[in-house]
Amino acid sequence: MSEEPQGQGWPPRDATVSAPAADAPSGGARPPGQGRRGWHRFVPGWRLVLGALVLIALLLTGGFLAGYALVHIPPANATATAQSNVYLYEDGTLLARDGEVNRESVPLAQVPLTVRQAVLAAEDRDFYSQRAVDPKAMVRAAWNTLTGKGKQSGSTITQQYVKNYYLGQEQTLSRKWKEFFISIKLSREQSKDEILQGYLNTSYFGRNAYGVQAAAQAYYGKDIEEIDTAEGAYLATLLNAPSTFDVTTHPENRNAALARWNYTLGGMVKEKWLTPSERAAMTFPDPQRARSATGLSGQRGYVVQAVEEYLTGDAEGTVILDEKTLAAGGYRITTTLERAKQDAFTEAVTDQVTSRLDGERKTDRNVRVGGASIDPATGRVVAMYGGVDYTRQYVNNATRRDYQVGSAFKPFVFASAVENHSRTQDGRRITPETLYDGTDRRRVEGWSGRPYAPENEDGISYGQITVTEATDKSVNAVYAQMAMDVGPARVRETAIGLGIPADTPDLSASPSIALGPATPSVLDMTEAYATLADHGRHRAYTLVTKVTKDGVAVRLPKRAARQAVSREAADTTTGILQSVVDGGTGTAAQSAGRPAAGKTGTAEEDRAAWFAGYTPELATVVAVMGQDPDTGTQKSLYGAMGVPRVNGGGAPARIWGQFTGLALADREIVEFELLLEPGAWQESSPTASSSPSEPGRGSGSPSRAPSRAPSRGPSVSGGPGETKAPEPPPLPEAPPTVGEAPQEAEGPVTEGVGRPETGEDAPFGGGSDGGAGDGGGPGEEAGPAGPAGPADPAGRPDPGAMTGPR
């Protein structure tokens, strides 16, 4: 080393002392990092590590606290709370479901313990012992997913319930973040049982089944409480991959489904919920094949519609559930309908109408059918036919109130006459054998309103004719006069008492009320005829026997019976209606093979044809209606099904006969037990002559006894085949005889067709047969055309030329 020159003024340098290293700090301090060379220089010191960990902990704690404070438990999503209402037949079997979501929530107690345990074994075995979230499982699931060992959620049952009920199924970090905090909060607000119940009711099991109850029905056709352990394990298996593990729709995945099923049962054994011997005895429970959804097609939609109307406000104004509450879903509704009778109605309509329709025949496009059947002893609706298919024709023909009933209303007039001990204008008591003038267009006597002279079918005059024969032949002139004799207001009151709603359109207190211009529904008419069948005891019809939600029953109103008319009035009416079936316009109903009573009816211009009747056990009404499928307007049935005229004695009576025979096939034949009004079958002749038959018109046949003898009380012999009740006590002296009815009405004459003329006192027109176009024996739709009559004031063809009732 070369020596540097000594600076001037410096002290002498000691040559024995070495100079300090160039990089050594003054004062002898060691430079930082002395001895840490290479990669060690990049390792942080312990102080830095500790500081970082504290910072991270503070951040995590702050984030957790912020998340916990900011994330709230939201309202349930609409899909999770949506439930279908379930409709059942009277025996508890499934009839229909409404709503878009196939779900029926059930309480946890209704789910068998082994089914609950199977779900836990498959999805979360530590559910009851662990916290709402399981970080270890989340990490493990993420690792297995990343390493290709299978995609796993790592979610507890609580987290899955939160996803189902509150958040939905989207796979986002935001949803996972919310799920984490909501699960923690929810676990502090709900018990484990409540969370498990919610999970079971919101999980998807495939086959459009949400919730364990819907799954039990979808896969095994039974309620969840009937599911056994093996079946429950299969339902639990489906939670992992509903579509994949459905062995009927994906048989190629059967081995995978079996492996998952075995895994579930193995977990039950491991948790000691199942013994090894019990497990060894189990075989795989193959589910039933997937069926189409029990929606609203066929008759189901009509039934659901009728039941909804019944629950939200029936004919008596009783509201069981308001519309909004019912629409929320979740109700289990047991109806009064019987599956066998429902099927019988469909079969009868198919055989007698649907099979006879021709798509090339324009009129056949307009044909509609409605029907209903009630047990008279209980008021329960046991069958209903609303139309060919609710998804094609959504208007329920059994409950609509816009078609005239025609002559099917006439029994209410006679029942009112007997109930009120009514007399004719000349003072004779009205009985089945009372003679009336059946002359066509005979003006009604005693009516102070606009002159009213109804037309008989085809303009036929019958002359002197008994009430029984006038009922057999559905003579308008007789019944319009009888309504006046009784009092139109009394007739209306009687009809309402029997079951016709007071607000029925065109139920007006005028003589034409007898001819059926009113438009009650098929179901209304069935209720009224059921009252006659039950000897005058009225019961408002019922469609529902039980309603529950979440296992809690809804209180239903009690339906008490009341005597609407006396038994004598009802039974005497039944007597003349038996004659209609035995030899009148309703003979096609004899195909039922049972004692029957009934009445035909046809609306104005043949727009509807009716048969209303009953046996002692069953009251049924059938209507065939005409409606344009495009515009919804009422149409005539002339020419439908290939016949000139559709009358009540044709297709409606044939449907009635076939249905009644099928519905009662397994029951013994029961005869009517009638208690008739004293003197009911005694002839009561007029005290003054009435209008004779017009030239060329037929006259009434001689009086005859009822076709069926009364089964109660002593009787005296009448004519051949006639049974009469005992002679009644002498009647009070009759009022002065009413003079002969004028042949020509002064002023305009109102026909028995069409709607009323303007003016308060104008009587309403009835059905054009007055319902009179009721003829037709078995296999017939139309009776013979009558002779030509006087020209129609409205300028229409003469009666003999018309092809339909007037």
From TrEMBL:
Residue intervals of the Glycosyl transferase family domain: 96-268
Q: Does the keyword RNA-binding apply?
A: no
Q: Which UniProt keywords apply?
A: Carboxypeptidase, Cell shape, Cell wall biogenesis/degradation, Glycosyltransferase, Hydrolase, Membrane, Multifunctional enzyme, Peptidoglycan synthesis, Protease, Transferase, Transmembrane, Transmembrane helix
For this protein, the record's SUPFAM superfamilies field holds: beta-lactamase/transpeptidase-like, Lysozyme-like
State the Gene Ontology terms under molecular function: penicillin binding; peptidoglycan glycosyltransferase activity; serine-type D-Ala-D-Ala carboxypeptidase activity
Gene3D superfamilies on file: Biosynthetic peptidoglycan transglycosylase-like, DD-peptidase/beta-lactamase superfamily
Segments of skewed composition (Low complexity) = 19-34, 683-715, 781-806
Identify its protein family.
In the N-terminal section; belongs to the glycosyltransferase 51 family.
Name under which the protein is recorded:
Penicillin-binding protein
Organism, scientific name: Streptomyces jumonjinensis
